[in-house]
Amino acid sequence: MALGYKARKRWSLVVLLVALPAYIVAAVTLTDWLRARYDGLPMLVELIVFVVLGVVWIIPLKRIFIGVGQPDPDEGQDRP
Known about the structure:
The radius of gyration is 18 Å and the shape is elongated. It has 3 helices and no strands. The protein is mostly helical. α1 (about 5-35) runs antiparallel to α2 (about 45-55). It has helices at about 5-35, 45-55, 60-65.
């Protein structure tokens, strides 16, 4: 099911304002849990976990963000 331009724009706002902060809290909670479980996580491992989690969230949501910053292709006239 293909999303229209306006739907992608709305969903991208929902993702950025609601889902992404919740994901960040979950990522920090996971890292804190790993730190507590393994009595101090090496800094390199912690960095790798944050980098992987920082990239993984966009993979399923990439199609929502494609073209959102461009003008509406369905709109025939230019807005000032």
